[in-house]
Amino acid sequence: xxxxxxxxxxxxxxxxxxxxxxxxxxxxxxxxxxxxxxxxxxxxxxxxxxxxxxxxxxxxxxxxxxxxxxxxxxxxxxxxxxxxxxxxxxxxxxxxxxxxxxxxxxxxxxxxxxxxxxxxxxxxxxxxxxxxxxxxxxxxxxxxxxxxxxxxxxxxxxxxxxxxxxxxxxxxxxxxxxxxxxxxx
Length: 185
Known about the structure:
mainly alpha, 0% strand, single chain
């Protein structure tokens, strides 16, 4: 398999990036429109989002395992997301107390993986900037949460909402770019 076949294989699953982006944007909009729901609802929403996002990464990694050398990074990202969501669901009281740390660590780890994937994608395709921007947004968001853990609940909800919308836009940009890749090349 040549290096140029990897993005073509990945482009077949463009819709998983778009779906991840749409879920992230929906989550972000809910955070803005209903900030008074409280931390319990936020924990449940985060858990659902992390599990769905993780499942999307697992699916993408699994489906591209024979076509892309970096498929395992998508699996790792997916496992981190599913694990973070499962912890939040299984231990909601703990998750409510540690939500900032869980989300911060998860965001930084997935951001690093997104950047590594973007660098690898850069070798064979254009449009990797969207994945890199999603990774940078994840890292910045996670760092802000870890540096300012005492932020108020409303601030946290809005910060999470803003991150989710930005991340969603970047994921949709990547998916849309991958959608047309096999037609262009």
